[in-house]
Amino acid sequence: MSIDDPRRDEELMTLLRAGGEEPLGVLMDRHGTELARYFLVRTRDPHVAQDLANETFYRIYAKAGTFDAGKPFRPWFYTVAMNVWRAWQRRRKPPEVSLLKLPETAEIRPAPAAGSEEAAAVLDQLGEVDREILVLRHYEGLKLKDIARQLGLRPGAVYTRLFRAIEKLRRPSGFA
Amino acid sequence: MGLRCEDVRRILAAGPAGDAEADAAAEHLDQCADCARRLDLELGKALSAFPVREAPSLPAVRKLIDQETRGFSLVRLAAVAAGLLVALATGWAILREAPRAVPAPAVAPEPPKLADLRAIDRNVVQVEGVLALYLQFCLSCINTPTDDDRQEYLTRSLLIFREVRGRIRAQFERESDPAPTVDAVTRDALNDALRLLSTSKLASVSFFPTKVTEFSVEAPDRWRTTHQLGGKSWRLTLHAQPVWLNFAYLKIALGADEALMARLEETLWTGVYVNLPKKIEDGDPTIAAKTLEAVLPLLSSRQQAAFRKIAGSP
């Protein structure tokens, strides 16, 4: 099994629904790294990202019966991923924050895990809002005006932030 | 400012010159599929160069699948075994009792009075009751939620309630000198809940107190808190909920297991509990009837009888 497998994602899901486990491996080969990146951008912790990606594929397997083979796989896949992320947000214990520092300014910044300095360094250059814009545009395919509405920004500000984020991601030093 | 595709491509390469140009570029990108594709290509390229070291692994996913399957099999095995036992016991009882069987009416145990509970259980009942009402107060008394946000808040707040609940009992069980007072534990619980709430705000449910500075029980059916809200200090007096709506008490009174409690809590939290502080203050006479309607279908006949004794028949 490999990324070059000629079967479409939707066909693989149909096979998975029929009870075979083999298509799961193909889907993981095909989408695993991208999914881990999705969670990495959201959480900034590679180990958490890996756990959430594993959990997403487990849910894909467990909920294959709910997939409509007449519809494209990718939006459904990222909806499952988004639900996994939301569930994680709900169950994680927030860091201890002095009540004096409350309310809404207390941003949760998980400490980077060992071996993740490279990714963490790049992600640290991007603010919470910038990372959210990346996710909403690239993984959820939203228009700039819809992202703007969701985040309470002007569409131009969303575009400017997106442009700067791309520039930061491109910087060779970021991925040396 | 209307932009042409050439202008936008220049902006894609060099960045917008100012706010007006950025707005115009954003508008164009939302309307022109070709330029949007160019933007997405750049974004995709930049992201795909982003290093991912820990990709998901098939063995780890298989482990999750196995765990779930094993759990499911155990549950099924237990269900089959329980079914067999029931069948055997029923058969044995019929054979043994058949000639002189007189159907005995199911007698519901007398539900315990709050005053008869152990001190720690009484305290937990009280603190949990306040916490539940306070979380509902944050939703319906100081925010005007959309339907979607209300639903989402209810889901999140029940999870928060459950998380904080664990700490409440732990605080009472911890041996400390002096022992924690109900007021102090309640104040801590409310602040814990507020801290958790502040990490997951919704667009139309975002106005929360930032800190509870004081809590005290004024009368058996009334308590008061002082909290920081919108930069000011406010005193809030709320009426306590009836004991038959209190999860901690119901668990004891009905002898309910975790699974039943989870169902009861979800049913009550998303139905009867919504707007509860105001309903109690208004003396809404429909609360009991609605509660019975929601709760009874979830209970066994003995538990139903017990619950009717607690809540009274409408």
Task: Summarize this structure briefly.
The complex is a heterodimer of chains A (176) and B (314). Chain A is mainly α.
Can you describe what's shown?
The complex is a heterodimer of chains A (176) and B (314). By secondary structure, chain A is an all-alpha fold. Chain A has helices at residues 9-17, 22-43, 46-62, 73-91, 117-124, 128-138, 144-151, 155-170. Mean pLDDT of chain A is 80; it is low at 100-115. Chain B is built from 12 helices and 3 strands; from the N terminus they run αααααααβββααααα. In chain B, strands 1-2-3 form a 3-stranded antiparallel beta sheet. The radius of gyration of chain B is 28 Å and the shape is extended. Chains A and B meet through helix 2, helix 3, helix 4, helix 5 and helix 6 of A and helix 2, helix 3, helix 4, helix 6 and helix 7 of B.
The overall pLDDT of chain B, averaged over residues, is 83
Rg of chain B, please? 28 Å
Q: Would you identify the regions of chain B where 5 or more consecutive residues have pLDDT less than 50?
A: 101-105
The largest interface is: A-B, 64 and 53 residues
Protein structure class of chain B: mainly alpha
Question: pLDDT below 50 for ≥5 consecutive residues: which ranges of chain A?
Answer: 100-115
Residue-averaged pLDDT of chain A, rounded? 80
Instruction: Assign an overall shape of chain B.
Output: extended
Strand order of the largest sheet of chain B: 1-2-3
Give the topology string of chain B: H per helix, E per strand: HHHHHHHEEEHHHHH
- Main sheet of chain B, how many strands, which sense, barrel? 3 strands, antiparallel
Global shape of chain A: globular
Major sheet summary line of chain A: none
Chain-wise SSE layout:
The complex is a heterodimer of chains A (176) and B (314).
Chain A lengths: L8 H9 L4 H22 L2 H17 L10 H19 L25 H8 L3 H11 L5 H8 L3 H16 L6
Helix pairs in contact in A: 1-2, 2-3, 3-4, 6-8, 7-8
Chain B lengths: L4 H10 L4 H13 L1 H16 L9 H40 L21 H22 L6 H27 L8 H17 L12 E9 L2 E8 L2 E8 L7 H8 L3 H13 L5 H6 L5 H9 L5 H11 L3
Antiparallel strand pairs in B: 1-2, 2-3
